Amino acid sequence: MTSGLVTAGGGGGGKVMSLRLQYYVVLGGVAAVVLLACLRYTPTAAAVAAVGYGFWGNGDGASLAAAGAAATTVGGTGTSAAATTGGGGAGGGRSPSRVVIFNFGDSNSDTGGMAAAMGLNIALPEGRTYFRRPTGRISDGRLVIDFICESLNTPHLSPYLKSLGSDFSNGVNFAIGGSTATPGGSTFSLDVQLHQFLYFRTRSIELINQGVRTPIDRDGFRNAIYTIDIGQNDLAAYMNLPYDQVLAKIPTIVAHIKYTIEALYGHGGRKFWVHGTGALGCLPQKLSIPRDDDSDLDGNGCLKTYNAAAREFNAQLGAACRRLRQRMADAAVVFTDVYAAKYDLVANHTLHGIERPLMACCGNGGPPYNYNHFKMCMSAEMELCDMGARFASWDGVHYTEAANAIVAARVLTGEYSTPPVRFASLVNSTAVPNDG
């Protein structure tokens, strides 16, 4: 999702524009080179067909046993899983981390990737609550993925592109703000994030084979939980089209997510936690778009068309996950409908202590939405809510820490998931319920 960040301007417009143009040209060239280089690490369809989806490169052994050969069922309670410093496993001789998460997505789960990639010096009030400083998250504090990590007693995930201060022993965050599931829809679309993971994995295995200690060992890759939270930007970009054309675009978006899961499975991944999209029609950014009348608003003040598209996207993504479960019997593919959890922040906001469910905490324009497409959060004219105020929306697009905490607490229970398993139950499981 777009962050709405605005940088200060200055003099020397011609020189600035020239340097800026050079910067984007160089960035585009580098991205193209990296993408082409990463393609060599993706197995061809013939290779996958030859070895099956249990393929594990570099002579790592056979695929995991099918779930049908195991009789154990995942319990409903999770164990504390503090991350240890991962190691080489068979190659490096260290004990594997008990919790490893590889996350793919957009700004809903970006823990600083966009800031690192683009060199953005984000300032306060971003990160003003928990961190007391900006971290690259487009929020006033923690995201849902942060609360998921905390629930497992493992550190927050480090962004893949963060060059200093990163710790990859408990996984890697490939999510980048503004990313799309559709290739070419953004600089760091899901296919690029997949190639980044494949590069990271291939290089790790190479080092392990050389006896070098690595942050994540072979078992770490095998036992990792692969989380995916993407598609909102794709869907939002099409909402200016007639509704039937929006619906026609959804299968393609879902297909790209499905392919990514298949590719990760082909490289040994067996535990997948997939998020649907949220209630787009309740975002202040969408609500502030000029409209002729309020006939498209539902009883809670949200846009019915946007929300209908979001529900249809989730229905199709959930169906795709169900088909994957049928094909990949030895894998856990859990679909989590975050729409219901996020819409509830509006429908039952008083129960959650949310004062302003449809108004941005950081924006411009005041009630009812405090969102101005030309004077967004972080601009010189932003209007900021009080520190202790309970808003659902941070900047009109992204959620506040308070809202993320509520959503995470509900997501972690498995109540919104199919099959209905708790996130924590995936950590040490070797067999999972694969129905539903």
From TrEMBL:
One Pfam family here: Lipase_GDSL
InterPro entries: GDSL, SGNH_hydro_sf, SGNH_plant_lipase-like
Transmembrane segment boundaries: 21-42
SUPFAM superfamilies: SGNH hydrolase (SSF52266)
Molecular function terms from GO: hydrolase activity, acting on ester bonds
Keywords: Glycoprotein, Hydrolase, Membrane, Signal, Transmembrane, Transmembrane helix
Family membership: Belongs to the 'GDSL' lipolytic enzyme family.
Protein name, per record: Esterase
Species: Oryza glaberrima (African rice)
Encoding gene (name): LOC127760212
